[in-house]
Write a structure and sequence with these properties.
The protein is α+β, with helices and mostly antiparallel strands. It contains 13 helices and 18 strands. The radius of gyration is 21 Å and the shape is globular. It binds glycine.
């Protein structure tokens, strides 16, 4: 990457996925004088180490589930009596979204934790595990941009993480102006986002970039499930559909240390993203399937089709990943946005294509 950047001399680099963040692209580029948006690898530990995140939250009195960090089967055995079932087991390291298991019984929790610890399940990423109390409620994705000191909140969204219908990452997401009210947004800034940024600064790992707070809205109040140190996928697609100010300007402000609360202006529309995945995903899937209907789908009112796992050959698009397209639509009402997104999905086809049919369905029921 340094060799590439040397050649093209970038005006701005936005470091997206977690792996380049962990590998230290931000500090390496910044050291060489290239303007770079994102946290350093030390700050990105909030995502790259689940045990770091949990201990950090505890040190700074930020609400999160009860947990135990285990490096051995003996520690798992000793910790399990302190938990009620179900129990959440998380691999400490990065596991491409596959490092979390919800065990219904203590036996299952013990088996999964030991499989992770042995390295058989997830390799090095599972050499340490975090056992966690299972939280009930609605999930909420709350993202802010920070300059290391101040934060600018984005509108909140909800991700739909499983592949099958009927359950609430990453097969779809939605956002509406009423997903949380202003009072809740201010609470989340005051009690979660700002304390995280202040805590990281106090610990000498200033947090710049996007901080994604994955929350559970429980009866005991909002609690942190996880952090991502980047834009979330697929929340970002509908969130940015509602953005009316300049994202680039907010990124420049983060780099220059002049983030302010009002950096983002939003429309009062709702927006929905439905992910179309390859046949077999999240398991093994075949790539190279020809995609049709993209142009027709994109003509729908308020619709934008974001490419994720595609490649272009001779003016045609082919699948090249598990999560292929983020079909996103915006409208004044959530119901219309949902309808537009699904109408667009119906126009797109490729061999094995599948998507959830219930994105935002629970929110529509509540209205
Ligand atoms: N939506 C969760 C993630 O981006 O990891």
């Amino acid at each position: 990457m340094v060799a590439l950047a040397n050649r093209i001399q970038p005006d701005l680099t936005i470091v997206g996925p977690e792996l380049p963040l962990m590998l230290g692209v931000v500090e390496e580029f910044t050291r060489r004088g290239w303007r770079t948006f994102g946290p350093t690898s030390a700050a990105a530990q909030l995502e790259t180490s689940k045990s770091f995140a949990k201990e950090f939250l505890q040190r700074h009195h930020i609400p999160t589930a009860h947990y135990a960090i285990c490096d051995s089967s003996e520690q798992v055995r000793d910790a399990l009596p302190h938990f009620h079932t179900p129990i959440v087991i998380k691999a400490d390291g990065l596991a491409a979204g596959k490092g979390v298991v919800i065990a219904k019984t203590k036996d299952e929790a013990s088996t999964v934790a030991n499989e992770m610890l042995s390295g058989r399940m997830l390799g090095e990423a599972g050499s340490r595990v975090v056992l966690e109390e299972f939280l009930e409620g609605d999930e909420l994705s709350f993202l802010v941009v920070s300059d290391g000191e101040r934060v600018a909140p984005l509108v909140a969204a909800q991700d739909h993480k499983r592949v099958g219908d009927g359950d609430t990452g990453g097969m779809g997401a939605y956002t509406t102006p009423t997903i949380i009210d202003d009072q809740m947004r201010d609470w989340l800034v005051a009690h979660i986002a700002r304390p995280v940024v202040a805590g990281m600064k106090a610990e000498g790992a200033e947090y710049k970039g996007v901080l994604y707070c994955g929350l559970m809205m429980t009866a005991r109040g909002p609690m942190v499930l996880e952090f991502n140190c980047r834009f979330g996928d697929p929340e970002t697609q509908p969130v940015l559909m509602r953005l009316e100010s300049d994202l680039l300007e907010a990124m420049e402000a983060s780099i220059d240390g002049r983030t302010s609360d009002g950096d983002f202006k939003w429309s009062n529309d709702a927006a929905v993203c439905v992910v179309i995945a390859s046949g077999g995903y999240p398991g093994a899937y075949e790539a190279g399937k020809k995609i049709t209907g993209l142009e027709d789908a994109a003509k729908g009112e308020g619709v934008r089709v974001f490419h994720a796992g595609t490649s272009k050959r001779d003016d045609a698009f082919y699948t090249s990943g598990g999560r292929v397209l983020g079909v996103t639509a915006r409208a004044a009402e959530l119901e219309t946005a949902v309808q537009r997104a699904y109408e667009a999905c119906a126009k797109i086809s490729f061999d094995g294509a599948h998507y959830r049919k219930d994105i935002a369905a629970r929110a529509l029921k509540k209205d």
